[in-house]
Design a protein that fits this description.
Number of helices: 16
Number of strands: 16
Shape: elongated
Largest sheet: 8 strands, mixed
CATH architecture of the largest domain: 3-Layer(aba) Sandwich
CATH class of the largest domain: Alpha Beta
CATH topology of the largest domain: Rossmann fold
Number of domains: 2
Structural class: alpha/beta
Strand order of the largest sheet: 1-2-4-3-5-6-7-8
Helix content: 25-40%
Length: 461
Amino acid sequence: MMEPRIQYAKTSDGVSIAYAAMGSGVPLVHTGWFPISHLQAEWKLPEIRRWLERLSQTMLLVRYDSRGTGLSERDVTDFSVEARLLDLEAVVDRLGLDRFVLYGTLHTGPVAITYAARHPERVSRLVLCCTYALGTDWLRSPVVQGVRAVMDIDWHTFTETAVQAIGVGWEEGEFARRLAALYRESTTQRAYVTATAILNAIDVTDLLPQVKVPTLVVHRKLAPLDVDVAKGLAARIPDARLALVDGRGIFEFIGEMEAVAMALDEFLGEGDASAVPGRPLPSGTAIILFADIVDSTALTERLGDAAFREKARTLGVSLRAVIRECAGTPVEGPTLGDGVLAVFASAREAIEAARGCGKAGDDAGLPLHLGLHAGDVTREKDPDGRDNVYGGAVNIASRISGLSAPGEVMVSDTVRSLARTSAGVRFEDRGGQSLKGVGEPVRVWAVRDEEARKGDTNGTR
C-alpha cells in the first residue's frame, strides 16, 4: 500500500491540521496516540504500518496529527480537550463525513468521549482503547509517576524510558528505540511538558452517561493504566461493553494486535452488515459449527447474571477471532441460547476452528459443547438487518453439539467423510444417535488427536 497522501484542514481558531485517509468503506476516524503523532514518520515503522493497513482493509481510515504534533502546526500552547476538539471537527468537516466511527486511544480518549456525547447524530459507534476520562487515573500508575520524574530533566532519557516502560514493554528492544525516536520527532520537550500539565487536569467523567452511541472499551490486561479504569468507563457509558485482551503495552500495534482488531471487527459488524465487509454468508452447502456454553444456567446462578454475561461476551470475542483466523464466517444474527454459530467452506478449517474454540472456552472457564455438520443453508436478514443462516442442517449441528462432552468436538458422518484425509486428526465412532426433530438416527464421531492413534486404532478411523 502506498504512503498516505497528506492534506490539511484549518480549524475554526486558525490552526493547520495535517490529515490522511486510506482504504474505503465505512469511515473510521482514529484520533491518534497524542503526543506521539507524525503521519509521515509513523508510516516508516512496519509495526505501526501493519496496524494501519489492518484497519484500512475494510474501512476508510482517517488519521490526523493533533495540534502541536507531527506535520500539523507546532506553534500552539493550548492542548485542552476543547482545543483538540477543534482539530477533530476541522478534519471531519473537511472530508464531509456526515456519520462515522470514532476511535479514541490513550490521551485522545477524552476528546472522543466529549465529541460522541455532543454529536450522537454524527458518531455511529465509539471505540475507546487503553484510555481514561479522568487525567488523574493515568497519573495513579507508579510506572507513569516514575517515568515522569525525568520528563523535565532529560528529554532523550524520558522518551526512551516512557516508550519501553509504558508503551511497548522492555522486551521490544530495537522497535522501542525506533518508537522513541518517533516520539521525539512528533513533538518537543517544551510542548510535551505544557500538554502534560493540561492532560493531568482533564475530567470528562460527567459526560460518560451522556454518550448515547454503542461503545466498545478495549483494554490490555497488564497495561500501566489500571484495568479498573476501563471497567469504570464501560460501566458508566450506556450500551458499552468491555473487551480485555492480553498484553501489557498501551499501543494497539504491538503484542496481540489481532486480538484488538478482531474485537473491533466484531463490534463494528454487529450494527451494520456493511460496516465490516467480510466473506459473504453462503446460501447452499456449508460446514456449520455450533458452540454452546456448558450448563449456562448453573453458571449464571453461581456467578450472577451480570458476571456471567460479561465473561460470555469476552469469550464471544475470542471465539469469533478463532473462527475468522480459520477462514470461517461468524453469524451475527440471533442463534440459540448462549450459542455461537459459524459457517465454513472447508471441513478441515471448520474442525481446526472448533478445536480452537474449545481451548478458548476452557481457558475462559466456560467450557463448550461443540458440534459440526454439513448441509444446505439459507441466508436471510433478520428483523434487525443482520445476516443469519437457517435450515435443517443448522439445527442438526446444534443437536450434535449437545451430544459432546465439555470441550469435545463432535462431527456428523458427513463432515468426517469430507475431512478424514486432510484434518490431521482421528475420529472416534459414537454410532447412530437420535436427534430431536430429526427423523432418522445420525451417525456421529468425536474428534481426537492424530498422535493418540498409535497403538490404539480400535473403533477409530
